[in-house]
Fold these 2 entries.
Entry 1:
Amino acid sequence: MTARKSSGTAKSVAKTGQGGELHQSASAPESRLTTNHGVPVSDNQNSLKAGRRGPTLLEDFVLREKIQHFDHERIPERIVHARGSAAHGFFELTDTLAEFSRARILTEVGVKTEVFTRFSTVAGGAGSVDTPRDVRGFAVKFYTREGNWDLVGNNIPVFFIQDAIKFPDLIHAVKMEADRGYPQAASAHDTFWDFIGLMPEATHMIMWAMSDRGIPRSLRMIEGFGVNTFRLLNDKDEPTFVKFHWRPKLGTQSTCWDEAVKIAGADPDYHRRDLHEAIAAGDFPEWEFGVQLISQDEADALPFDILDATKLIPEEMVPIRIIGRMVLNRNPDNFFAETEQAAFLPTNMPPGIDVSEDPLLQGRLFSYQDTQLSRLGTVNFHQIPINRAKGCPFQNLQRDGQMQTQVFAGRANYEPNSLAEAGEVGGPREDPAGGFRSVALPMQETKVRLRADSFADHFSQARLFYRSQTAIEQAHLASAIVFELSKVTLEHVRDRVLANLGNVDADLAQRVADGLNVALPKPSTPAVKPRDMEVSQALRIVGKYPETLVGRAVGILVSDGADGVLVDAVRAAVEAEGAVVKIVAPKIGGVTLKNGKRLKADGQLAGTPSVIFDAVALVLSKDGCTSLLTEGAAIDFARDAFGHLKAIGFSAEAKPLLDKAGVEPDAGIVELDKDADTFIAVARTRQWDRERKVRMLA
Ligand code: HDE
């Protein structure tokens, strides 16, 4: 091996480990590799050794600095919501709430405010998959002109528990079991259901989490909710209760459970990739922003307590007023610096928005600031670019601390001070008129550690949710609970859950018991007898799905000799609908079409199963089809598309593959024609009617 010296002139020669040479122009200061302290590095390939084959020297600060930085590259992941994906964008107000709030973000119509939005799963670690059955976090940081507003919500409008003091128990129960370290990112295990069975207040949230909302199709297709009740305060400091809502323009859409499980293997980053690719392609996801506004009198008249986070306010009782929109239009430049270091705090609120006494929210007001201290390691985490208030200046007299990046001038780091009188910098002062004020509430209660009686009804809204679902969704929900409880090994745990379900709905409890093939225990004794509420159509997904291909993906499986005219027809029709086309071929090099032209593949069949598409087309030649009859991945491609209720378009030559895969004819299985119209018509929705033919549901 020859070792050469760098020339030190305009052209330097860096040595590779193999003795090869990398020539690079390293003289220009702006392109020069340096240490963290700015010392130019001459050789980034070899450590400094005592002789050609000798030990490495401690004096090699270039090596030590590089390795040491690497050793410390990871920070603790979030204790919950560790797995997340985020994007930049803007919020635009379309309707003013000036009557209710003095916050400029809610009153200045037409103003665009920068946002950074992070979506997450809750239970899994940072490296876990995107499609477990789980709640999704929906956290928005608005960089408003009056400081950051963080609306840290979920895709489900209620929560498992009523009081923050139970949060560590809930999370311990759902995360990997303490002794064995599994399961990762899954609620289907003993400790979670043990906790749930013992906490009837969780039942309403369980209905939501076990519904199809727990397995979203895309982060672009989830709703968002502030969950807790907040307050708005107007110019006169008059309060109004508020619930916040995000509604995806693409509609709320889900996967099938079997599909979600298979996606986890096919593409663990399915949601992250989908969000990134959509934004990169200019297909910007968008949400409407809405509020439910409730006066104190209206709140008092409701049959539940709006301070109880296990309750929602049905839209039929208090309509959602749409007041704005959010568009996500820019991917982060750096995952760690932005997505990982983003710190969301429910305490970040501009003047005119305030908290309520919801005991869950009250605990959150402490937790988020606190957790950032161990996660980001310093009280100065607000200075990290992604967390910095950028809609306005921020200034105060807080000083020093680890990773302080600001250089403060002057002597005044206390207040009051009179240094300005001597011509020195006096520093910022409080603003009684424009500053943040809390709602003025009379407080004369006895100090107690108890739960309000108004929180005691744990089943009425769980019942409302179940009864408001379509038959399809009820079957999915029951099947999801059967699946989860089938992974529970402790019989008494299953029985307790079943006993609670009896208070939700007798039919649901029986279906789950039948699905498990166990006897249904008597319903548990509820603290308050559940009441029937008016069914709420708004709680459904099925039927509210927009029948469209917009924002979705269609896979075309091709073989050598396939009819290019059909491929082009499908592609044109799908793209005209606003969906993305991916060509799947047996080999990544693509295929040669009937007309002799080459067609490139976007994915190799074995690594690109149909689960990642919303509809598929099979354009095969006769020989191509014959050769795929012995290829499991091809058979699965068709079988899974069928089983996941997707539309399948096919060229006549592809029929033997469909037959081999057990695909039975129905309205969603169509032979492709020259304009692909029939295929597009059925591809706009799942084939729900097929479901009972392909799956035993509870
Ligand atoms: Fe959180 N939650 N949470 N949570 N939460 C965190 O803060 C906590 C709750 C939510 O993308 C943590 O920065 C307590 C409800 C989201 O960075 C932590 C309680 C809702 C995110 C924390 C709750 C949420 C978090 C962990 C019960 C829906 C991810 C890392 C009192 C409204 C934000 C962090 C992101 C993250 C505490 C309940 C949403 C530990 C104590 C209810 C979307 O502070």
Note: The radius of gyration is 29 Å.
Entry 2:
Amino acid sequence: SRRITVRDVAAAKARDEKWPMLTAYDAMTASVFDEAGIPVLLVGDSMGNCHLGYESTVPVTMDEITLLSAAVVRGTKRALVVGDLPFGSYQEGPVQALRNATRLVKEAGVGAVKLEGGERSAGQVELLVSSGIPVMAHVGLTPQSVNAYGGYPVQGRGEEAAQQLLRDAKAVQDAGAFAVVLEAVPSELAAEVTRSLAIPTVGIGAGPDCDAQVLVWTDMAGMTAGRVPKFVKQYLALRKLLGDAAKEFAEDVVGGAFPAEPHVFH
Ligand code: KIV
Ligand code: NA
């Protein structure tokens, strides 16, 4: 069976079907989500926080995104794999964006790329799409701007900010984006944006009325250390389960219970 394409994603909106997206950063985890039927996997620059040990997404490089995107593509058969363009890889302008997006498509084999920004990134979206690279845009809270925000504040509150968010979403749609992530915006505004657009909205902290929902997989699975944002639902306590397994292994080794007869060659 063939891979999901951006056309399938567009068709889902026409049929009013909701769909899930998860992040993935390695082949093994990606294969689990692929076999579970998750149609779209994002190799997010959230890998900075939850896979590479950085404090934010800001330090993530093209080399890192390319390496891990290639692994996710190798680990999957069905999913549309979307590679995130990291901070500094597209802000200089459309030509820089095209050079780096082309690298992700050619070296990693992703089916689409994602970048942050609405009106400010419309020129980049337009050149990529006209060059044959599908683009998922990302508006509302854009984490690569953490140093400008001074944190991760909810976006689009108040009439002026709401109008700007609508303009941003329309700008990337007009530029040819096949979908747009809405991050950390009031549910009512996300619903209005979703109604106003012909392309699917992918919500994260954006309420129930988006066309799709995305979570960072380590948040979804309860692998993340410490507090998680309000919008996260944890479906598993993976951090505890894995830690308990490691402790049991350690006890078995120290106490001599592992390896036992079934694990031994003679
Ligand atoms: O990097 C990421 O994981 C993302 C999603 C949260 C949308 O951009
Ligand atoms: Na991201």
Note: Strands lie at 19-23, 40-43, 80-84, 112-116, 135-140, 179-183, 201-204, 212-215.
